[in-house]
Amino acid sequence: MLRKIVKLGPKVRVLLDVGAQILELDNYEVAREWLKLEESFHIHSAVFFGRDDELLVLKRDGKTESFVSSNLSKQLDQALVYLDEAHTQSEISPQCVIPHRIDPNFATTWCSGTDLKLPVDTRAAVTLGPNLAKDKFVQGCMGMRKLGNGHSLVFLAPPDIYPHIQQETSTEKSKTESVGVSDVLLWTMQEGFRQIQHGFAIWADQGFQYLKRSQGWDNFRSDGDIGALGSAIQEPESRPLLEMYGVDDGSLKVDHCVLNSPNGKEITRQLIEFNVIVTNSVRVQEEQEREVDHEVEKERNIDDPNLPRR
């Protein structure tokens, strides 16, 4: 990805990893590799966030120093800036020093505890990833405060995401036709809708589970049957293969007493209103962070010195 970025024109000096596509390298390694690939003679360093959320500056000679005490804080036209996914979603910190008088040649961008003033002609690359909702996408892009007035963006979509963006467009696009900003925005909105529907199904399942436990507790208080209480409260640790892979409609099985309760009827009404279907798969799905969803596997090969070499 970094090799493609350095070949883009106009030059990209800011990388916003909104889609969490860079996982093999940490922030320091990304800054180091990007600086190695960048051949522009006027680029002297790279800015990134360290492990302690401190903004650091990596120079071409390999030395690292704090951004706050560096002379580069006022010379960002001579630096590359890399922000990982976590820092593209940070709010403006009250510790940020916002000057009363802003240089017209620079624009203040959001940060985590430090004020970055990027040149007006800065171009940023924004990565796209799976399950990237509009709010998160826009928040990451708005790090470039002067969009439309000097700042510009270019979007980087991996091969598994680009076809989905094409499919979400209102007009049928061929494989050779490029997508535009409106297409990317439409795709992020559709991703947001899918996340809302998925969250709605999880909410409904949790509501049904709560009603089941509440009714089990009420029954226990009246009849004292501890076995029935355990059946109502405990969740199965495993599912039989017939339930997982058998021929079934896949709909979630809920007790009739739960469905016929006032709260159960209200949950069912809202599911029908928003056209959400709750399936058995909801109970085995877990919400994951983007880094876990793109977990990188590494396999170590250890050579046995006692074996003969070929």
From TrEMBL:
Ordered alphabetically, the record's keywords are: Hydrolase, Protease, Thiol protease, Ubl conjugation pathway
Give the residues annotated as coiled coil.
Answer: none
The molecular function terms in GO held by this entry are:
cysteine-type deubiquitinase activity
**Enzyme Commission no:** 3.4.19.12
InterPro entries reported in the protein's UniProt record:
OTU_Deubiquitinase
Question: What are its GO biological-process terms?
Answer: proteolysis
Task: Report which reactions are catalysed by this protein.
Answer: Thiol-dependent hydrolysis of ester, thioester, amide, peptide and isopeptide bonds formed by the C-terminal Gly of ubiquitin (a 76-residue protein attached to proteins as an intracellular targeting signal)
Q: Where is this region: Disordered?
A: 287-310
Among PANTHER family, the record links this protein to: P-LOOP CONTAINING NUCLEOSIDE TRIPHOSPHATE HYDROLASE PROTEIN (PTHR13367:SF33), UBIQUITIN THIOESTERASE (PTHR13367)
Name this polypeptide is given: ubiquitinyl hydrolase 1
Q: Which organism is it from?
A: Orbilia oligospora (Nematode-trapping fungus)
